[in-house]
Amino acid sequence: MEASPALNDLKSTTCPNCGASLSYKPGTTNLTCEHCGSSFEIKTAGSSAEAQKENDLLAALSGNWQALQAQTQAYVVKCPACGAESSFDQNVFASACAFCGSPLSVKPDERSVAHPQAVLPFKIDRTAATNEYTKWLRKLWFAPNNLKKAASADRFNGVYLPFWTFDTDTQTDYRGERGEHYTETHTRMVNGKQEVVHETKTRWFPAGGRVQRFFNDILITASRAMPEKHLDRLEPWDLANLVSYDARYLSGFKAEVSQVNIADGYNEAKQRMERVIEQDVRRDIGGDEQRISSLNTRYDRQTYKYILLPVWLSVYRYGNKIYRFVVNARTGEVHGERPWSAWKIALAVIAALIVLGVVIYFVGQH
After folding, report:
1. What is the DSSP letter of 239?
2. CB pairs under 8 A, 24+ apart, for 78-85?
3. DSSP of 175-236
4. Which end of the chain is more exposed for a tag (fewer CB within 10 A), N or C?
């Protein structure tokens, strides 16, 4: 149905035509009603510049960062199994945890939480994510025969995950040594025969200097429920398309509440930056080898953003273990975990050994 005029005052997610719930339609700026088919455009009050606004990190670190963010009322459920805290619609009192699949049967806790300044809306819908999921399942070698039943795509959940982004200018003074290889040639006697030997050695020279680098949008997950290794595989994200936070983009989806303090998030970001800075220093020293004795980094213009990014997440249990399949709901990038069939692997090894034995036999005959 063609979109109706924008309802700028539509702050709830209830259809004004029939009273049913409205849901955000991925890839659009519309809320749609599955009951009557009505569609309403989301007119976000904030500009794209506000979505990209950088906030003073030092101010946030010196006090309660949540007090610097706009507050909103949320209905939050904490999973007793994995500890994930997810926000739900007010009328949801029983569901399953999107991160581990455990049943949730407790009433949501209504509390005030700091909402993000920006959100990257869903672009890929459930059907497209399911297609990626199905293709992934078909490619699995040595998977248990009943995996497709256990990993049913109807368990897909659309979830917004919280992230920090950090920006800073860095200036690093360093001291160290540059190693340059050279070769010495000499002769020696081996079993009564003269042999020429080439030996590589290193000359070391003192080195010192300064490197500079601007770090832009160092992305750190504020989620404790999703392993970082899964989320790293989903990059890059098109952060240039962030929009100002509007709760209507979350309608029909779940959203995880931040469980990582901004100070902890920044410490992790600094560790990532330090690894890059060390590489810069080694390149600046040059030579064949480098030794670094000291690094002194100054961080200037430190800023942050608190944002939500969208994923399609499927969680299933096989045996006594939890497996996850995640789709970047903007780009379609996928990452999944899978179980292995021990007996299929054993049969493949046996078959390979038989083939190898036959080849060796015929080679030996000739």
Report:
1. G
2. 78/109, 79/104, 79/225, 82/225, 83/224, 83/225, 83/259, 84/223, 84/224, 84/225, 84/256, 84/259, 85/256, 85/257, 85/259
3. EEEEEEEEEEEEEEEETTEEEEEEEEEEEEEEEEEEEEEEEEEEEEE--SSS-HHHHHTT--
4. C
Closest CA to 248 of 6, 11, 89, 27: 11
- Predicted confidence band at 100 (pLDDT cuts at 50, 70, 90)? low
Residue 336 structure tokens: 């999944």
**Are residue 125 and residue 10 in the same domain, yes or no?**
no
CA distances from 68 to 4, 38, 115, 196, 281 (A): 36, 37, 10, 72, 36
Regarding whether 214 and 336 lie in a shared domain, the answer is: yes
Task: Establish if 363 belongs to a structural domain.
Answer: no
Please give the model's pTM, rounded to 2 decimal places: 0.78
Map residue 281 onto helix, strand or coil. helix
C-alpha to C-alpha distances, 298 to 304, 334, 343, nearest whole angstrom: 17, 37, 56
Q: Are residues 186 and 253 in the same domain?
A: no
Domain boundary among 159, 188, 208: 208
Same domain for 90 and 238, yes or no, is: yes
Phi, psi angle pair for 211, to nearest 5°: -125, 150
**Region for residue 222 given its phi and psi (left: phi exceeds 0; alpha: psi -120 to 50; beta: otherwise):** alpha
